[in-house]
Amino acid sequence: MRIMAVFAHPDDEIGCAGTLAKHAARGDEVMLVWTTLGELASQFGDASHEEVTRVRREHGAWVAGKIGAQHHFFDMGDSRMTGGREEALQLARLYATFRPNAVITWSDDHPHPDHRMTAKIAFDAITLARIPKIVNEDRPMPPAPDLSGDEAIESGEDVGRLEAWREPVRFYQYHAPASPYPEVFVNIEDTLDTAAAVMSYYHDFYKWAWTQDQFREGRAAAGRLGGVKYAERFNLRSSHPRARDYLD
Fold first, then answer.
1. CA 7 to each of CA 12, 35, 40, 226: distance values in angstroms, whole numbers, following the listed order
2. What would the mean pLDDT of 191-197 be, rounded to a whole number?
3. Residue 248 pLDDT exceeds 80
4. CB-CB neighbours of 196 under 10 Å
5. Spatial separation of the C-alpha atoms in residues 14 and 215, rounded to whole Å
6. d(Cα 45, Cα 224) in Å, to the nearest integer?
7. What's the distance, CA 44 to chain centroid?
8. In the prediction, which pLDDT does 245 show?
9. What number of other Cβ atoms are within 10 A of residue 38's Cβ?
10. pLDDT of residue 190
11. What is the DSSP string of the chain?
12. How far apart are CA 213 and CA 229, in angstroms?
């Protein structure tokens, strides 16, 4: 299984770090994606964009390494995302490359516009990634054939072109009380410490008042609802689940 987490800012992934670590430990391919650098964080002060990029790439590499994931940054502009087609197309091309079976992202109704726009393009990109002519828009045309008699590329052959990703993608979002979509709980008892380490890493950078005890209690509260000790909670917007032998 290949699972991609798509978020707006570094630290947004805290809500699914345990789930991602659990999948990585099982041997699944996991990719963390951020649509912006979160460059408006007050901690950066007047730092240059180059310095922000350097620091954020360190953050991304550390978190991905802790979870056991690949990672990728876009630079769509902190608090400047529009949710438009060009943003979705960038993500669709990454889908076509990574070929995820499942995506995790923000809910549709979060107050931060970047979070809502990231959820929008993450969903839109599923359809865009299915269409070869779309994911290959503006990509270089194949070279002309070599007519010298040597083995050569056939005329019209796609070279360096992306193959559309048309398999079903299950689309998970952070739980929202008003969501019309069914809830899913993931038992993270085995990976709670990894998730807590990711939270602590960002806590040290941002100097949050939010404590480790509060973080763990949030996972315990979700666990009580899901019938386990610790859990992360999602809504499943679009699914093609495997058949089961019996209902729960």
1. 6, 6, 16, 24
2. 98
3. no
4. 19
5. 10
6. 41
7. 24
8. 83
9. 23
10. 97
11. -EEEEEESSTTGGGGGHHHHHHHHHHT-EEEEEESS--TT-GGGTT--HHHHHHHHHHHHHHHHHHHT-EEEE----TT-----HHHHHHHHHHHHHH--SEEEE--TT-SSHHHHHHHHHHHHHHHHTT-HHHHTTTPPPPPPPP-SSSS-PPTT--SSPPPP--S--EEEEE--TT--SPEEEEE-GGGHHHHHHHHHHHHHHHT-S--HHHHHHHHHHHHHHHTSSSEEEEEEEE--PPP-SS--
12. 15
**The dihedral sign for the CA sequence 89, 59, 98, 187:** negative
**Under 8 Å between Cβ of 35 and 7:** yes
Average pLDDT, whole number, for the chain? 91
**Mean pLDDT value across residues 115-129:** 97
Mean pLDDT of 212-230: 97
